[in-house]
Structure formats: C-alpha cells, structure tokens
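Why does residue order matter? Because the sequence determines the fold. Keep that principle in mind as you read this record.
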Amino acid sequence: MAMMLAQTDKGLGAFFAPIRRRAVGKYELNGVRIQRLKNKMGNKGLPTTELKLKGTRGWMIGKEGNGLKKKSAILSALGFWGRALSISRAYTKTCNVRDGLLQDSPQHLRWMANQTVDYWAAFQLAFFGVALLGTTEQGRHGHDARAQKLFPPEDAALKTGSVRSVEGVRA
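Structure:
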C-alpha cells in the first residue's frame, strides 16, 4: 500500500492505493509506471522517482483538492513524538546519573515505558480514525458509522492533538 498525491479537478488530492493488483493468476503493478529517475540534491543524495499513474485503483483520503491538510498535523505530531522517544532512548545510553547510566534507573525506565505505550496507543487510534473516515467516505456506512461517533469532528481532533502533543512534553 502507498499514500499518493495526485492532481484532481479541484486540486491536489491524497489517495491510498495498493502497489500491486491481482490479475488472472498473478499480481501486476497497479497502473504505476516509472517515468524517470533523478538525483535529489541536499544533505543526503537520495534518488527521486517520477511515476506515471494510469488506471491506478485507489481511494481518496479527505476531501478532493485538500490533500492531507488537517490530518497531516495530527500525523506530524505523532512523528515528532516518536522521534522524541528515539532521542530519549539514545540519550539514556550516554547520560551518567549517580551510580550508572540513566537507562539503568527504574524510575526512568517506568516513565519511558509509559510514554512508549501512550505513543503506540495514540498511533493506533489515529490510524484507526483514518481507516474509519476512509470507509465512511466510500459510502459503506454499516457498523463503521456507529464507531465513527466515538471520534470528535475533524477540527476538534486537530485542537486536541495539538494540546496532547504539548502535554506530552516533560520538563
């Protein structure tokens, strides 16, 4: 599966699409053709690929022309939280406290474990919300529509996500 940005009639839209699709007795690329490869300049030289999508089957995420404007803030907050946990783990391996390293402190390990569990719970909840929104936007409203009522409106989720990201910072 891949997240793609593609031009629509109303502007740039975000799509969720499988890379391969089932053909008769085999799998083939889902309408994806490599247009060209080019080198990207910057801190790290990474190749960039331009793809031509023709007949690609995918599902739109969000509203047409909006891409991922609102949802990207929540997902970015999760990314920053994960990065902060990674930096914290690396720091505990070098920080000396009292008799040894910070990573050997039971109190700190308990705090890190709680933060890690909270992070993964928020991660799962965010992507569960994305999946629910995707099913309702595709017109399949069965029991998933009832589950969607558990989530606040999009703007409220954005405000809550911003507040939660600040509350997660420990002085």
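The radius of gyration is 21 Å.
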